[in-house]
Write a structure and sequence with these properties.
Layout lengths: L7 H7 L1 H4 L7 H19 L3 H10 L4 H7 L9 E8 L3 E11 L6 E6 L5 H5 L1
Antiparallel strand pairs: 1-2, 2-3
């Protein structure tokens, strides 16, 4: 993928299929986390072209994004517990950890099943 669609946050707010990754009842939380984290990135980077371009790309395409962005909630995402809809296992619970590049501009998400959960038992 190229352009804004390269970012999962863009696809989350513009492509309904991206949201099927999570159970419907978890989607409002994930939407809030994505936007609050983007606000944290914007605050950390200052006048950053990439952040401005992402916000400009999302504003005309997602009312949900606009509503959350305009709250100005800021919360950097380091770890999170997620429930993911798996094709064969149904809903599994995962811990999500963020690993950042040295300059903080790239992020690698690492998922692991918490010990004692069904996802860990299947792993």
């Amino acid at each position: 993928m190229r352009g804004p669609a390269e970012s999962f946050i863009y696809r989350w707010f513009t492509d309904p299929d991206a949201r099927t990754l999570c159970p419907a009842e978890d989607r409002p939380h994930h939407s809030w986390v994505f936007v609050a984290d983007l606000q944290a990135v914007a605050a950390r980077r200052g006048d950053d072209t990439e952040v401005h371009q992402m916000v400009a790309a999302l504003r005309p395409r997602s009312e949900a994004f606009i509503t959350l962005w305009d709250t100005h909630d800021v919360a950097p995402r380091r770890t999170d517990r997620k429930r993911i809809v798996h094709a064969t296992l149904d809903v599994i619970e995962l811990d999500c950890h963020s690993l950042f590049s040295e300059d903080g501009r790239r992020r690698l998400l690492w998922f692991s099943a918490p010990p004692g959960t069904e996802g860990a038992a299947q792993g």
